[in-house]
Design brief:
175 residues, alpha+beta, 2 domains, two-stranded antiparallel sheet, 7 helices, flat
């Protein structure tokens, strides 16, 4: 394996989905090539950094049961309106729970930011805003990936497409 081939298959190598022969060739190349070794280390560092930052941002966020139910119902309504998908689509089965989790995390982060920023502002402004804002509108857009492939002889043709979906709903703010 050479540098170009490893760079083309870097993410497959990191995701551990290369064949055993390709993986062995990649590891052999990494032993002798410091540039490719640095590229692998850089990607691992980025993945770890992003995961840690996301974990730190989400840990202190908590939503009430009512807010979680309202978000789940909004996602369910959106799913019910969407066209029927092939039962064999792995990505569509995976995307629905991920979209719900992402919706909860984004809404919780937004609400937490609003609460934290509200504590530092003028009390009279906070009270007037809290008295008038009882419903928080939520709009969430996400893409659902769908992976398809077909085999033609020894050649595998694959495609990754995305369907954009939106969810609208509202949260009732607690006083």
């Amino acid at each position: 394996m050479n540098c170009e081939h490893l760079q083309e298959n870097l993410y497959d190598y990191l995701d551990d989905i290369l064949s055993s022969a390709e993986k062995a060739a990649a590891e052999k190349h990494l032993l002798s090539c410091s540039i490719c070794r640095e590229a692998v280390q850089r990607e691992l560092f980025h993945a770890e950094t992003i995961s840690n930052q996301l974990r730190q941002a989400v840990e202190p966020v908590a939503l009430g049961e009512n807010a979680q139910r309202q978000m789940a119902r909004a996602v369910q309504r959106s799913i019910a309106k969407s066209p029927e998908r092939s039962p064999f689509s792995f990505w569509s089965r995976l995307a629905i729970p991920l979209a719900a989790a992402a919706l909860i995390l984004i809404s919780a982060s937004w609400l937490a930011h609003r609460v934290i920023s509200g504590r530092t502002s003028n009390r009279s402004t906070v009270n007037s805003v809290a008295a008038s804002a009882q419903v928080v509108p939520i709009h969430f857009s996400y893409s659902v990936p769908e992976y398809t492939f077909q085999k033609e002889g020894a050649l595998v043709i694959d495609a990754l497409t995305y369907e954009r979906r939106s969810v609208d709903g509202a949260l009732i703010a607690r006083k």
